[in-house]
Amino acid sequence: MGIRLTMAALAATALTLSATPAALAAEAGLTDEVTMTLGKDGTLHVVEKISGASGQLKRTFITRTRYDDSNDRLYRISNVKGGTLSGDVLTVTGQTVEYDVKGAVTTSGGVEELRWFAVNGWNQPVAKATVKVNGPGQVQNLSCFAGALTSAIGCTSASMDHAATQADFEQENIAPDQALTVVVGYPKGSSDGEPILEKRFSLSAAFTLDTVTGGALAGLLVLLLGGVGLLYWTRGRDARVAGHEGGKVDPVQNGHFSPPDGVRPGQIGTLVDEQADVIDVTATIVDLAVRGYLRIDEQPRQTYDAPDWLLVRQPNAPVNALLPYELALYQAIFDGRDMVLLSQLSGSFATHLGKVRDALYADVVKQGWFARRPDTERTRWTVIGVVLIGVGLLATVALAWFTTYGLLGLGVVIAGGALAVGGQYMPAKTAKGSAALAHTMGFRQYLFSGELGDVPEQHRVELFSRYLPYAVIFDGVEHWSRVVASVTGNGHQADNLYWYHGPAEWDLSKFAGSMRTFTTTTSGAISATRQFRSL
């Protein structure tokens, strides 16, 4: 009886010991049996039998690898069964998974090579994987790699059958971030498979400079920049005038001031630089004072006080005789007031200055000096240039991403930039405008020649004062302020001018400095409204 019990105990122990490896193997992890068949059309059909999974099983396929310096190799997976594929992630729903792979075949030398990551990307460790590969021809060579994707370490075993029609691979303990890659070579032409390549983006490749791209870029730049030049030649140049239209101009007629073509300082300023800017408005304020529409009273100040002036409306001034832009400025200054300090020109003044600017541009068109408003012409061509820059940038991105001709897009950007900058020079004067400009330049030459001519003393103060607003336009305030300060109606120094009054103990010897400061301060006040371009 004792012997029987002992034998039974030994048998039970033996059964327990013999069952332990199997139980440990079942608990060790996933088992993956892979069967791959390469068809004549180059499609690789894969069947995987999976066991030992715990919880939801997912696999992330490798569908893109580096092929060479310029291209990536793609693997396209389709016809999935036994799971659902979202992007590169397969969610397993059964014990067996099937799918097709395209792009797993490439030809190298005289061998057609099948390469696929038979096991990789599982969210659980794979305890053991076996892979069987069947193809359309006899196996020429085979190899396998285990570990990281770039690993050169061989797998546990790799072999083929005696007829060289099937290759077998085996690997144990594959971590989730590792792969088992199998490579099988077949005779060239065994299938119609070929790699799927996608060009990899790189700046050096996208903007390749060679004979083709360089020549195309040069031709495009010649065409586009030549077009911009032709556009300026036909649309942006001032109309020519006869040579006798120029030369020096004497603005004194019968002892009285008569500017060339009867133009006002603001008009001249807009005509010369094709811009309605702060200096044009400043000169117009001085001109309104000289012509008797307002008086400028310099305010007394202490040593460190900021200078200030009181602008006083002159009663009974013929306001109806003002040009539209002058009237708009006159109303902007006073706005229902009889006097205002220059330092207090704010609020509605800024709003009204927009009307002054528009009226100035409308005036030069009304005079027949420009066919279209210079600001509108500049804006139109500048906007077209900016749009062309945008088109060029989009073309550059598209060409760089899909081709190696990104430089051509930059050519369009350059042309757009040239047009945007050149748009500032597109306003063109008419023949009448060119003639007025020639007269204006002749007037400027006269103004700075120093030849004051034979002007009666009783007219000199008024005459030289009338010159002063034009001197503001031509940046000659210092010179003409001294000329004005040097004479009076009787040839003697006076304390004030009829249009400019200084504080106590001020005389005309200080007029040049006062006038220079006034024009600078006034221009600053106008610039602060941001309605006009500053110089």
Would you kindly provide a written description of the structure presented here, covering whatever features stand out?
The protein is built from 13 helices and 23 strands. It has 535 residues and is an alpha+beta fold. Helix 4 (265-273) runs antiparallel to helix 5 (278-290) and helix 4 runs parallel beside helix 11 (457-473). It is elongated and about 130 Å long.
Number of strands: 23
Q: Specify the biggest β-sheet.
A: 7 strands, mixed
Structural class call reads: alpha+beta
> Spans with pLDDT under 50 lasting ≥5 residues?
1-27
Please work out how many helical segments DSSP would assign: 13
> Span between N and C termini?
123 Å
Helix content: 40-55%
Radius of gyration from CA coordinates: 46 Å
Approximately what portion of the residues adopt beta-strand conformation?
15-25%
Q: Can you list the strand order of the major beta sheet?
A: 6-9-2-1-12-15-14
| Mean pLDDT score | 83
Outline type: elongated
Question: Summary?
Answer:
The chain has 535 residues and is of the alpha+beta class. Helix content is 40%, strand content 23%.
Fold topology:
Layout: H1 2-28, E1 30-38, E2 44-51, E3 58-60, E4 64-66, E5 71-74, E6 76-81, E7 83-86, E8 89-92, E9 96-102, E10 105-108, E11 111-120, E12 126-134, E13 141-147, E14 157-160, E15 166-174, E16 179-187, E17 196-199, H2 203-206, H3 211-236, E18 252-253, E19 256-257, H4 265-273, H5 278-290, E20 294-298, E21 309-313, H6 324-334, E22 339-341, H7 348-366, H8 374-402, H9 406-422, H10 431-447, H11 457-473, H12 477-485, E23 500-501, H13 511-527
Parallel strand pairs: 1-12, 20-23
Antiparallel strand pairs: 1-2, 2-9, 3-8, 4-5, 5-17, 6-9, 7-8, 10-11, 11-16, 12-15, 13-16, 14-15, 18-19, 20-21, 21-22
